[in-house]
Design brief:
This protein is an alpha+beta fold and 82 residues long. It has a single domain, classed as Glutaredoxin. The protein has 2 helices and 6 strands, in the order ββαββββα. The strands form 3 sheets. Strands 1-2 form a two-stranded antiparallel ribbon. Strands 3-4 form a two-stranded antiparallel ribbon. Strand 5 and strand 6 form a beta hairpin. The chain is globular, with a radius of gyration of 14 Å.
Length: 82
């Protein structure tokens, strides 16, 4: 797991290469790509109290490209940061 935080400390980003957190949110090892397994693409906006305020979870059998645009995700972060 790797955390990144912006300079103000207002936004944190988690890279979950070990699938530990993604398994807690039910999106780990949900799709097969050839002989490998991979997480379903998912983006969560979680507030300081641990409440999921917004989620985008890839849909469909071949969902690896079903991801929100960066500006959509940042808009949700700003919306719930108020």
């Amino acid at each position: 797991m790797k955390w990144w935080q912006d300079r103000s400390g207002a936004i944190s980003v988690l890279a979950d290469a070990g699938f530990w957190v993604s398994s807690m949110y039910g999106v780990a090892f949900q799709m097969r790509i050839h002989t490998d397994v991979s997480n379903t693409p998912a983006t969560f906006v979680i507030d300081r109290n641990g409440v999921v305020r917004w989620a985008h979870i890839g849909e469909g059998e071949r969902n690896w490209s079903d991801r929100p645009k960066e500006d959509e995700t940042l808009a949700k972060v700003k919306e719930f940061a108020k």
